[in-house]
Amino acid sequence: PRGKKGIVQLLKIESPNVGYVVLSVDGYAFLGPGLPLTYADPEVWVWRVTCPDGAYVREGLELTSHHIETVPFGSFLRVSRKTVNSMGLSRLRVHALLEEDDDVTTNASGSSASNKYGNTNNRRVVEGWISEALNPLSGQRGPIVQPLPFPVPVVYRVALPAGAIVRSDVELSSTQIGHAPMGSELSIVGRAFSEHPMDQCIERLQLAGHGGWVSVRLNRPPPLDELVFELLGIDGNFDPSSPGLYHLDAYQKVVQEHNNQEVEELLHLHEEGNDVVHDLSDIGGNYAR
Q: Cα–Cα distance between 120 and 126 in angstroms, integer?
């Protein structure tokens, strides 16, 4: 349950050690519900409200649309889409489940929020659009909501017959650096929205070891935006007691792959009679620096 001002909630745990951990302070949760894989599901993206004033949920993309609800500071919500409105503001399509006794429950007119979005076990289901960041025209700056990071690295398998294109950065305009055929298994450590196309920003996955980015779905309008990947589970190479070692090993593997690819390309040129290659001993030196 959501805590209140002046209240510190604790949870007793039995694994990996017996003791107590802080669940929430003044209603702000330090622990999220569910198992780690919940936060890496390609069809569920959990964000959290980080603005102390909460997140204003409106019916439409524009700030002039009806104010449905304000999701309180610290709340978790699901984001399904990102786009940019006519003012150039990043807007997120969200789904939130609020308790009836949440502190902020009034609409723009000051009256109680309508129940048109349902009521289940004293909870309200709220759907609509929120801004990702504060409007600079208001004189304020900063995020309103932020995505929860992957708690652990996970393995995704390419499920699309055409495979998945690997690019160097989160934007689709970045350089293609590889291709993962159907059935390939990739270690993923995070995800983010691209900034383009502005009317339908693309959800992207980051490969371990800075190995590039891939798209979760095809860049097509629904229902043609098929999932490119399926979630297999937690990466078995990850040790929670030594997280840094996992990322270092993944980075070294990526560097080695780049080095091997560069060697193959240069040898191919050499075999064709190109005399540019004189010494292969220092190939990949730039990757090590």
A: 12
